[in-house]
Amino acid sequence: VQFVERGGGLVQAGGSLVLSCTASGFTLDYHVIGWFRQAPGKEREFVASVNWSGGSKYYADSVKGRFAISRDNAKNTVYLQMNSLKPEDTAVYFCAARMGLAPSGQHNDYDYWGQGTQVTVSS
Hints:
The chain is mainly β. Helix content is about 0%, strand content about 50%.
């Protein structure tokens, strides 16, 4: 079971990035997928989550209206569109998967984790 995360990088405040998370070794069907992030010296925090069909999505208040999570089960990939980025969005972003029906903001609910991709937003 492995995730390949892509799309991180350096962007100016107000800019956009798209992160992708592609699974190998298993199918993402029937898995809830979440994005989390961790800044230096801080705890890992929830960003967004989507259910298996893509019909139910859940966002942290800090990113609501700016970020959008989506999935393409045919490509075994989940995306995180990040707009209007702020310096406080700087962190390592992780995707994670869990069996289940409903999105979750609790990192302990997730069984599989990617290695993370760095997002840096300059002011």
